[in-house]
Amino acid sequence: MSKIDVLPVIMAGGSGTRLWPLSRAGYPKQFLILSGNTSLFQQAADRLATLGAEDIAVSAPLVVGNEEHRFMVLDQLREQHMSPSAVLQGGTDPVLVVAPADQTVTQADAFTTAVQTAIRQAQDGAIVILGITPDRPETGYGYIRGQADGNGLRVEAFVEKPDADTAQRYLDEGSYFWNSGMFVLRASTWIKALQRFRPDIEAATRASFDGRSADGAFVRPAKDAFAQVPSESIDYAVMEHCPGSEFPLRMVPLDAGWNDLGAWEAVWQVAPKDDDGNASRGDAIIADSRNTLVHATSRLVSAVGLDNIVVVETPDAVLVADRSKSQDVKKIVNSLTASQRGEHNLHRKVHRPWGWYDSIDMGERFQVKRIMVKPGASLSLQMHHHRAEHWIVVSGTAEVVNGDKTILLTENQSTYIPLGQVHRLSNPGKVPLEIIEVQSGSYLGEDDIVRYQDTYGRN
């Protein structure tokens, strides 16, 4: 018996603004550990890798994400001992299992069983949606109305996010499900449906893909052509038009402890709680409080006398919000963006392809950074117009290009990089390299970098 070829497609491009300040555009929620011991992206990759069966063969995942996150994707897949799939071209027609990267599931076996059922239905041309069995009158999700027939459930309509009374009615009626955003369908079915309902999107996307460039595991659509693709959700563009059309639209119920962790309220819901309904992560002490979430990142956070409150601490920003208003955290992000503040985009600790840096202190004409370089990794060969740098090795071995000299530094050794000097920092060893960098000069912005050579394709 030939097996059904399945290609998992992980959608990892979101910015997670409602989970600020932990989630930021430069390091969004899908790459964070919000539940369990792995990131939401890693959890998604692990779940999809378990879909194989006697009649189902599963390929490595195809990941769709932002270019600036591409090395996070590779690093987190490597931690799970995985590699991504290459973009498929003509000659194959797998069943796609399209899933967002920012969801959590507590019952893995139930998830696997439901998705395998969807795969078997999709192999014959149906479009199958995973509908979440609701357990409360949720107003933050879109809904799907399903109707039983001889083959299970067919989708009759998509419904926008309801008000509280309507959500309660949906729950009571029992024929409404939350829209999980997970779809299962053949690649050829998707192309035909897109050509049928939105030929403009199909044509613009094809033009962008035809002009693509490749760099190792990364495939980049043509940037200018991609910008011309109409911005519209899959639901509006295609799925809402399928009921009653030539494209059968089916639904498989999923009752597996699903949550999309779209806001801090959802994080509280899935977190372990004490007898008073309080949840915490990190170094937190909670007293005389109820139904409160405290997420501490870098220091002790204490809370007294709180009721239904969210407190989230990071090294450079703190959020305090009513749990019922957690969907409105995006208003803070919008305000930060409008005022051109950097806290909406990057953490104090910034991840780079070669490792990370943490800006631990700064003042007029100086900045201090803690820098980690992965084994075998290297920063770009670069120069700064406005700053000099002192480097002190804390652990590991550093190979330093400083002008026309190349030196090795070990623990407690240091060097000085004069302003305008071409330089490079590399880790030739087998363990992470950590240094302290002290910058001094008239301008210390990250854009004061002239790159001459770069392993990671940056300008």
TrEMBL record:
Gene3D superfamilies: Jelly Rolls (2.60.120.10), Spore Coat Polysaccharide Biosynthesis Protein SpsA, Chain A (3.90.550.10). Residues 8-81, 94-274 form the Nucleotidyl transferase domain. One of its GO terms (biological process) is polysaccharide biosynthetic process. Residues 340-454 form the Mannose-6-phosphate isomerase type II C-terminal domain. Its EC number is 2.7.7.13. GO terms for molecular function: GTP binding; isomerase activity; mannose-1-phosphate guanylyltransferase (GTP) activity. Keywords: GTP-binding, Isomerase, Nucleotide-binding, Nucleotidyltransferase, Transferase. It catalyses: alpha-D-mannose 1-phosphate + GTP + H(+) = GDP-alpha-D-mannose + diphosphate. Residues 283-336 form the MannoseP isomerase/GMP-like beta-helix domain. It comes from the Bacteria. NCBIfam families: GMP_PMI (TIGR01479). PANTHER family: MANNOSE-1-PHOSPHATE GUANYLYLTRANSFERASE (PTHR46390:SF1). Belongs to the mannose-6-phosphate isomerase type 2 family. This is mannose-1-phosphate guanylyltransferase.
